[in-house]
Amino acid sequence: MPTNISTTATWNERSAAKKKSVLNGVPAKFIHGSLEFRVDDITAVLDIPSKLLTEEELSITVLDATTVVAAIAKKNYSCVQVLDAFTHRAAIAHKLLNCCLEFRYGDARAEAERLDAHYRETGKLVGPLHGLPISVKDQCRIVGTETTCGFVDGIGRVDTEDSVLVDILKRAGAIIFVKTNLSIGCFWGETINNVIGHTSNPFNRSFSCGGSSGGEGALLGMHGSPMGVGSDLGGSIRSPSAYQGLWGLRPSTGRIPYYKMLNSMEGNEIVESVAGPMSHSPESLELFVRTVADSQPWLHDPKCHPLPWREHEFRTVTMGGRKLRIGLMSWDGYVLPQPPIRRAMNEVVEKLTAAGHEIVPWRVDQKKALSLLTRAFTCDGRGDHDRTIARSGEPDLNLFFRSSQRPDTLLENWALAMERNDFRAEVLEQWNATADENGAPIDVYLTPVNPSVCPKHGDYKRVRYLGYTGTANCLDFTACTIPVSFVDPEKDLADAEDGAHDAQGNKIPSPVSDLDRAIRNNYRPEIYGGLPLTVQIVGRRLEEEKVLGIAQTIRQLL
Amino acid sequence: MPTNISTTATWNERSAAKKKSVLNGVPAKFIHGSLEFRVDDITAVLDIPSKLLTEEELSITVLDATTVVAAIAKKNYSCVQVLDAFTHRAAIAHKLLNCCLEFRYGDARAEAERLDAHYRETGKLVGPLHGLPISVKDQCRIVGTETTCGFVDGIGRVDTEDSVLVDILKRAGAIIFVKTNLSIGCFWGETINNVIGHTSNPFNRSFSCGGSSGGEGALLGMHGSPMGVGSDLGGSIRSPSAYQGLWGLRPSTGRIPYYKMLNSMEGNEIVESVAGPMSHSPESLELFVRTVADSQPWLHDPKCHPLPWREHEFRTVTMGGRKLRIGLMSWDGYVLPQPPIRRAMNEVVEKLTAAGHEIVPWRVDQKKALSLLTRAFTCDGRGDHDRTIARSGEPDLNLFFRSSQRPDTLLENWALAMERNDFRAEVLEQWNATADENGAPIDVYLTPVNPSVCPKHGDYKRVRYLGYTGTANCLDFTACTIPVSFVDPEKDLADAEDGAHDAQGNKIPSPVSDLDRAIRNNYRPEIYGGLPLTVQIVGRRLEEEKVLGIAQTIRQLL
What we know:
Chains A, B: This is amidase. Chain A contains 20 helices and 13 strands.
C-alpha cells in the first residue's frame, strides 16, 4: 500500500513514512516482530524461514517459477495458498534484509481469489503465468502503488496506470505482489538510497546484495519470490543475480517492454536500460521471456520489435545435442577475477569440454566498452539526477556521478552515438571472424559476471569494475548469469602476495592497475566462505532464445 | 570516376570539377552532345531516349528490376548488355535532367564481365540480383568513388570502404553503376545543392523532381535505372517517387542497413533516416527487401534487427484473397490535397471496395507528428550543417534550418525522445482500437504522399508540408508509394474560388491556414497536365512484408 504522505512533506518525513509503510496490509501473522534488519551480522539468514513457515509454505516456496505454475495447474495449490506462502516468506526476508518497498497484499489477494474462482468455474487457466507471484523492482508502475526508482521524489505519488510489462504479466495470470528496493536512480551497484536505506545479502548480512536490482536479488536469494523483474543498464540484473546465486537475464533492448516504467536519465538512448527476469532456474527465465514475447508487446510498446518467441532458435541449442562453440574470456586483460571465480569458470569449461562442446578463445575490448559506457552514464553532467533529488530535497549520496562535469552538447553526444555504433560493428565482425571451417561462429561467450565474488557493505567503491557486465550493455548483447558454486575457503585460497602466482604456485598475470590490485587484495577466503559463485554467458543482440537454451544445457552439465 | 581535385581547392573549383566529371569514364557513344539540361522547358523529355537508343537498349530499359534479373537468368541478355543499355539511358537522363553525380562505368563494366564469365562457366547465378544495375543516392560509400551527401566537402575525398548495404547488394550480384544527385545534406524536398546544382523532373522540366532522393526520382522516371536506393527522413524517398510516379518504400529503421552511409546530423536518433528502394513495380521492391533481409544484415550493421524475410506475413495478404481492412485518411484536417490527388485517392478506394476490401475511417494527429519532427530536425540549431558547409566554404543555401536557434540541451533532447515515445504509443493504441469483431485491426492506411501534385522549380518553399510523409517517419512506420494515374486537366479542375466547393460544386473543407490555402491555389490544371499522381499505404513498424504484399494487391486492382 502506498504511504499516503503528502509530497510537500520534508524528505525525512517522506522517507520515514515509507520505511514504516512497507509491510502495510500484510496479514499480522506473516510479520515476525522478533526479526530485525542488520548490516553487520555475518551469519547466513537463509535458514530462518524454515523455522517460521508452515510445512506447506515451505514446500511451496522452494519451488521455482515453472513448478509453481505447474503445481497450480495440477491443483496441488490454489493461487491464494501460493500468494500467502510467498508473502509470508517475503515479509520475513524484508524484516531481515530491508529488501522491499511496498507490498500490495490486498489487491494481490483479490487477484488470487479471482484467478482461483476462474479456474474453479471454467477449468481454464487465464494464461501461462496463472497464479505466479512476481516481485518487481520499484521502477514498475502499478495502479495504486508508489514508484520511486530509488528517489524520495516518488514517495507519496500514486500510480494511475500500469507499465506495459506489468499489464502483460497480469494478463498472463501473474500476481505482482511486492515492489523491491533498488539503488538511487538505478545507478549504483550497491542497493542504497534515501528512500529506506540499504539492503543486505542473505548469505551474509555484512555483505552487499549488489545492485541496482538488489532488492530483487536479496528477496529471491531468500526464496521470498519465485520470479523477479529487474532492470540492467550496466549489470544491474546480473550483479545481484551473481551475488545471490540466481539466474538472471539481461535481454537486448526491444524484447521486453520498458514503456511506462520509471527510470532516471529517461530519453538517453546511447545505452539503454532493459527490463529482465531473475529467478531460480533457466526454465523460469524461459517461461518469462516466452510469455512476454508471445504477448506481442510491440503492439503496445513502440520500442519493442515484432519478435515472437522463436522456438526454432531455442531448440537448435537444446535438442539434438548439437556441439556448441563457446567463446571463453576468463580474463579481459584489465582486471583478473578473484580465485574462486577463476575456479567457477574452470569448472564450467571442464564440464563443457567433457560434454564435447568446443571452447574458442575470445576477448572483447572491455576498456573501450567501459569508456563508452562511462561517457553515456555521465553525459548530462548529473543534470537529471540533480534535478530529481532537488525536487524532494533529499541529500546527495555522492556516488558515481561527477557533479562538476559539463553536460555534453548535442553534437558531442551524437559523436558518442556514432562511436558506439562503430564499436558494436567492430565486435560483430570480430564475432563473425570466429567462424570455423563450416562457417559457424561462436554461439555465446562465457565470462565472469564480476571480478569480485561480492563486496562487503561499503567495499563496493573499492572493487567497482563494470567491464565484464557493462560490455554486454554497450553492445546491447543478451546475457544470462549461471550460478555455479559457492566459495570454499579450503579450495579457494588467496593468490600469492607477489601478485604473480596463485596459491598453488601457478603463474597468473601481475596486476596491471591499482583497481586490479585492489580487487585481488579484497578477497579473503576466511570471510567469503559460502558466498555464491556465478558466471555468465553472452550472446549477440536479440538472441534470447539461444542464450536461454544454452543456459539450460549448461545447467544440466553442472 | 572521382574528380581527382584537391580538397584544398576553393568550393567553386571543386563544384566545377564535379560537374565536369560526372560522365567521366562513360563510353563516348553514350554521350549525346546535343542534349542539354534545362529548368524552363515544359515539354516532357520522356520520349527522347527512344530516339537515341538501339532497339535492344530500349527493350532492356523498359524492364523492371524483376524482369531484368529474369532476362539475364534466361540468358536473353548478358550483364554487360544490360549495364550498357542502362548506362546509355542514364547518360541521356543526366544530360537532360542533371540527375547524376558519378558514373563508375569502368568498375561496373569489369564487374558485369566477371558476372557473365561466372554464369557462363558455372551455370550458376551469384545471387538473386545477378547483373541488376542499381543506382544509389550519393550517401552510399563505394570504394573508389566520392560521396558528398549533397555537400561540397565530399568532393575530392575517395571512399576506401563500401557501405554495408552496397556490400550486400554487390554480393547478391548487383552492379552499382551510378550515384545520383540529392539535396544538400538530404534536408530539403527539392534536389538542390552547391555540388552540381539542381535536378529537373522528366515529365516536365520546369517542375521539381522532389527530394531529397531526387536524382533517383528523375533517373528512374526516365527509366535510366531499374532500381534505385534512396533514403527517407521526412519523405525523401516517397516525394520523388510520387513526383515521378514510382514505387518507393520507406522501410522502418533496422531493416535495411544504413551503416557506413554518409549522412548529415549523424548520431541524431530522435527520428532516423532509413535507406530504401525505389523502382517501377512493387515486385521489384519485394525483390530488394527480400534479398537484403535474407542476407542477414544484422551480422554487419549493429542497428539491424534479426528479421529475415517473413514469407508468411507476405503471403497472408497476397495469397488466398483475404479481405483487407484499409484505414483511410484522405485529409488530415490541416492541409487538403489538390483536386487530382483527391481523385487518385477516390480511384483507389473505389477499386478496393469493389474488390471486397473494407475501408475504415482513420486519422492520425499529423500536426503533432510534424511538431516532433521539426524539433528533431532543428534540435542542433544547424550546428552540424554549419560546420559541414564551413569546411568547404560553400555558400549557405538558406533553406529549412533556422540558424539563429539555440541547440537543445541534452535534457531537452531527452524530453523530446520521451514525447516521441508517447506519441508512438498513442498511435499504436489508436491502431489497436480499429479492431473489428474478430479482433482484426486495420492492415495499413491509405493516404496522400503530398498534398501537392508536384511543385514547379522554386515553388517548393510555398507548398512545403511534410504532414503526410513525415508522420510515418515520426512513427517509424513502413510506407510504400502507389502510382495511380496522371493529372488530366479536363478531369482535374481547380476548386471553386470560395475555397469551400470543388469544381463540381461539392462542399469541401474551407482552408484552415495560409499554407492550406497556398497549396490549393498553387494547383493549375493547365500547366500540371501529365504529371504523375501517387498515393501511399502506411503499415506499422517493421511490417515491410505486409505493406509490400498489399502494394502488389492494389497494383493488380489498378
